[in-house]
């Protein structure tokens, strides 16, 4: 029964991706906590005892942590989310071209997290460095996002070769 709870490789995101970027699925657990006391301001993140806390909603916090850890309280939403990781120089700049917000501008870049869209798919992104971006997306959209990013990279690669 434990093998059903481990969800590795739910998308074909593994492997080289093009433009010096790598995209792969990252195993994490996500809990929603409704206790917002002492947590970061809206649109910010904090790390407490190896638990990353993201606040993009007024009434809840996303708590993201290693799948080997346990967390008391809150609601586990890991089954409905996939966390993709886009790595490579220019990863944040690349994503900025395909989101409605400028990820490289202050205060978003300094906050290191944003709730936005890629294409029409809602995502939550966070980073400590701009070459290593985590993208959380609903599991039902994950493969579509991988395919969309592949198309964007293919388009960008074609444009660069035409110049």
Give an account of the 3D structure:
The protein has 163 residues and is of the alpha+beta class. 23% of the residues lie in helices and 38% in strands. It is built from 4 helices and 11 strands. The strands form 2 sheets. Strands 1-2-8-11-10-9 form a 6-stranded antiparallel β-sheet. It has a 5-stranded antiparallel β-sheet with strand order 4-5-6-3-7, with no helix packed on it. Strand 1 (16-18) and strand 2 form a beta hairpin. The longest helix is centred in the C-terminal third of the chain and has 24 residues, at 139-162. It is globular.
Could you give the order of strands across the largest sheet? 1-2-8-11-10-9
Number of helices: 4
Low confidence ranges: 1-7
Count of DSSP strands? 11
The span between the termini is 54 Å
Structural class: alpha+beta
Helical content (DSSP H or I, runs of 4+): 10-25%
SS strand fraction: 35-45%
Task: Kindly provide the radius of gyration, computed on alpha-carbon positions and rounded to a whole number of angstroms.
Answer: 16 Å
Order of helices and strands: HEEEEEEEEHHEEEH
Main beta sheet strand tally, sense and closure: 6 strands, antiparallel
Mean pLDDT: 88
Envelope shape: globular
């Amino acid at each position: 029964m434990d093998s059903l709870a481990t969800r590795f490789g739910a998308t074909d995101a593994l492997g080289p991706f093009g433009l010096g970027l790598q995209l792969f699925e990252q195993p994490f657990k996500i809990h929603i906590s409704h206790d917002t006391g002492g947590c970061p301001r809206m649109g910010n993140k904090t790390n407490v005892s190896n638990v990353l806390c993201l606040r993009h909603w007024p009434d809840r916090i996303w708590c993201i942590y290693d799948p080997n850890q346990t967390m008391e309280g809150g609601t586990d939403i890991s089954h409905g989310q996939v966390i993709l990781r886009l790595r490579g120089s220019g990863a944040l700049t690349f994503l900025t071209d395909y989101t409605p917000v400028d990820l490289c501008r202050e205060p978003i870049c300094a906050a290191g997290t944003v709730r936005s869209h890629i294409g029409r798919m809602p995502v939550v992104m966070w980073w400590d460095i701009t070459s290593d971006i985590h993208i959380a997306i609903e599991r039902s959209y994950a493969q579509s996002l991988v395919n969309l990013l592949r198309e964007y990279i293919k388009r960008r690669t074609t444009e660069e070769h035409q110049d």
